[in-house]
Fold this protein.
Amino acid sequence: MRAFVCTLCRMTIDAPLANPAARRAHARIHHLARTGPMGPAALLELSQQLRLIVPFTASFWAASDPLTTLAIGPARLENTSGQCDRFWEREFLVQDFNLFRDLARAERPASSLFRATDGQPTRSVRYREMNRALGLGDELRGVFRSGKRAWGIVALWREEGQRPFSAAEEKLVADLSAPIAEAFRRAALLRASTSAESPEAPGLLVFDQQGELVFFNDEAEGWLSTLPPTDGGDRSPSGLLLPAEIRSVVGLAHAVSAGVEQGSARVRTQTRTGRWLVIHGFPLRGPGDMPGRTAVVIEPAKASEIAPIIVEAYDLGPREQQISQMIARGLSTAQIAEQLCLSQYTVRDYVKTVFEKVGVSSRGELVARIFAEHYAEPLRDSLANGLLATQ
């Protein structure tokens, strides 16, 4: 691996914002977080700016499904090509330090491997079996968390032999967690859905025990072409570019099959045009009940699939959700107050809070923003499927 030359002085490592260039980069990161959704171009700039403050050799960046912490697009790999399948296998199959799901619940949402292992990174299976093979040393991981939900994840690596990440650098990444999470959260709301051509039938991909793609149908190829690519990712031997959400679902499905994880491997994500999809991973078994291959299905998301994410993205509380649904049904303030046994003044306060969170100024705008923009297409798909089922 090409050596990364650190252009910052030792003082900058101990105090990441000690020089003007680092302070400008830090201000630029906050500007990116405040002003726009986290798309591929913003993700590239975020990586470039953070490197000026916290030098690193290689990195992995991705949005995440806030309900599962599984990686989705947009995603970016730098100097770690060809390692996606191994990365996700270890994330779910091996109990290790600084797993993303653990950081999502931790008091501080960022941690270095050197610090987590008390200066003994060889205690980490990931370090022994993957990082060292790539010539990588210390690893700093973080989740971009808004409230209790993680909307994005990052892993930064330094070359083997370089100084581990400092406590100050770890704190800086942790302090950036909430601002950057808002940019990822905003992306789930602001990407405009369009009626661009895409398959309607489910796509099917089948992976072997090593995580290699062995079969897929035409619909799967079509759906994959609509997903944001993982910048820097490698193509499978079949020629298909498999984005981060596919790799993470396969990794989790393997862990479910091995009995290490429970539940289902399932993630919600958006196409480049904003259409919501759901991706499921199913362990398959061969003769004699032996573990076999993994099936991955890609299909349009139903309204019930995306409702929890939209609620999380707008940060609506239970009562705010309830009142929003009543507004969508056309109920007046007086009718809402009567049904919920609240005063009209209290209902008006809730409505005002909902308007502020969603960024609208009228009931009509609220219905258009939440229900028309995010629910119309999934509901239309569900109705179409229901009509077909009755014919």
